[in-house]
Design a protein that fits this description.
By secondary structure, this protein is of the alpha/beta class. It has one domain: Ribokinase (UDP-N-acetylmuramoyl-L-alanine:D-glutamate ligase, 3-Layer(aba) Sandwich), CATH 3.40.1190. Strands 4-1-9-10-11-12-13-14 form an 8-stranded mixed β-sheet, with helices on both faces. Strand 7 and strand 8 form a beta hairpin. Helix 6 packs across helix 7 and helix 10 runs antiparallel to helix 11. 49% of the residues are buried.
Length: 344
């Protein structure tokens, strides 16, 4: 069984991982059905949350007791202040988050229907403005692991920063993950496949994998992604769990059944759970099981950000949900690890 190499013991007060990517403010409206063209679509109420792939990942990591340092850009506006206040309240290190007057904070309206499907409208705003190159050294001080999001590759300035982070952390002997995390229409295959050669963990959805490899066959697209050179490929299958390669064998790790209310942030909760397992040196199968559980709990509530699942909620799902063999012993082992964390 493959076991991740744990990070060396950090000094007290030192952050565990750098997270680079988007910070948004999400306005969520729950509606009965998708409107006809030209029709009105009124939500009974609107919810305001901190969001964005990087912010969600950092917030979810804090739930696991991991200390993430967030490297991103927000606007000089009320939305930016709201996002930073939310992140700081959750004890995410925002000292490396830059503020700009040249763009508004990333803003999304998320339309959520009864079946939990969500549609996004909005703009990346300040996320298109990379943090200043001069700040990279300070942001990476003491960092031995980094998480990069695929949206960083959409614009030239953030892409330069992402590549610098990758080179610097790898040169130190650390490791880097890439969460493609984009809609298939936005995926830039050449850029993603190029950077994937140098990452240690590549997170990708089924749809993203198809866009990157040109094949809809799940196992074939997985094999093609492995050939890029990424040390570990993790394919998110949604309601079907995830696909990983353990000891040279493709393993489909089963999902946990929940009532889906909103899938926003579920993928980010999945990634954060997997990353914390890597940081702690857990076996890869345990990492996949807890990641599936975290994603499931996140999908059972409306909104992401500060509403992402706690350890107690994830452990409760692991406690009550049995899996078919050979996965139930892995579930119990992962649950035992979580219970130790909860007792600390």
């Amino acid at each position: 069984m493959l076991r991740f190499r744990a990070m060396r013991k950090q000094r007290r007060g030192q952050d565990d991982i750098l997270v680079f990517g988007d910070i948004n403010v999400d306005i969520i409206g729950r509606v009965k059905a998708w409107p006809e063209p030209g029709a009105e679509c009124l939500a009974p109420r609107l919810e305001l949350h901190c969001g964005g792939v990087a912010a969600n990942c950092a917030l979810a990591l804090r739930r696991w007791g991991i200390s993430p340092r967030l490297f991103a850009c927000v606007g000089e506006d009320e939305f930016g202040r709201f996002a930073l206040k939310t992140l700081t309240k959750s004890r995410v290190d925002t000292s490396s988050v830059q503020r700009t007057s040249s763009a508004l904070t990333g803003l999304l309206y998320i339309n959520v229907t009864r079946d939990g499907q969500r549609t996004f409208f909005g703009s990346r705003g300040a996320n298109q403005c990379a943090p200043r190159i001069a700040q990279i050294a300070a942001a990476l001080r003491g960092i031995q692991a980094a998480s990069i999001t695929g949206y960083s590759l959409l614009d030239s300035s953030p892409e330069v920063v992402a590549r610098r982070i990758l080179r610097t952390v790898r040169a130190r002997g650390g490791w880097v993950s890439l969460d493609v995390g984009m809609e298939p229409s936005q995926v830039i295959p050449r850029k993603v496949m190029q950077i994937a050669r140098d990452v240690d963990i590549l997170f990708v959805s089924v749809e993203e994998a198809a866009a990157l490899t040109g094949t809809a066959d799940i196992r074939e697209s997985f094999r093609r992604l492995q050939k890029t050179g990424a040390q570990c490929v993790v394919m998110k299958l949604g309601k079907r769990g995830c696909l990983i390669c353990e000891s040279g064998v493709l393993r489909q790790v089963p999902a946990f059944k929940v009532k889906v209310l909103d899938s926003t942030g579920a993928g980010d909760a999945f990634v954060a759970a997997f990353l914390q397992a890597r940081l702690r040196g857990w076996p890869e199968l345990d990492a996949a099981v807890v990641a599936n559980a975290a994603g499931a709990v996140a999908a059972s509530v409306v909104g992401a950000g500060e509403k992402l699942p706690t350890l107690s909620q994830i452990a409760a799902l692991l406690q009550k949900s049995r899996l078919k063999r050979p996965w139930d012993p892995v579930r119990l082992q992962a649950l035992g690890r979580m219970q130790k964390l909860l007792r600390r």
